Amino acid sequence: MRKFFIVIFATLALGGCWRHAQAPAGRWEGTYEADDIMIVARVEVEPDGAVRVSAPNYTDLDGATEEQRNEIRGNLASGLADGWDHVPARAFDFDGHDFRKPGGIAPQMTWDKAAKQMTLIVYLGTHSAIDIPLHAKDEFSDNPWFD
What we know:
Layout: H1 2-18, E1 26-33, E2 37-45, E3 51-54, E4 57-59, H2 66-83, E5 93-94, E6 98-100, E7 107-112, E8 117-122, E9 130-137
Antiparallel strand pairs: 1-2, 1-9, 2-3, 2-4, 5-6, 6-7, 7-8, 8-9
């Protein structure tokens, strides 16, 4: 009887391990712009599955001139590049498609393996979730707006 419980326990333990897929290692960048929001995003998934993500944003752009928008783009890009070395790597649960905070419900990123497409999902206050398609990068750029 004891062997039966050991076998059941081992099967359940291994079954739990199978639900955690190997996250795709790499680097991605992208931008999002709407009438009232700008976001520049950078993601790095390390070979061990740890994730570094930063998405500086600017809201309340209503009435901004194109010159002001260009300045905001530059400030967001330089803030992203300047702060990147201080972004900690964090663990995420990854099921082969969705990245979630450990124990979390809402997806933070999605991975489409067939298309090799990473999408960051940004939640800003009362706005609906914003999907930002990211582009794979060998090296991060100084300004993803103009890359």
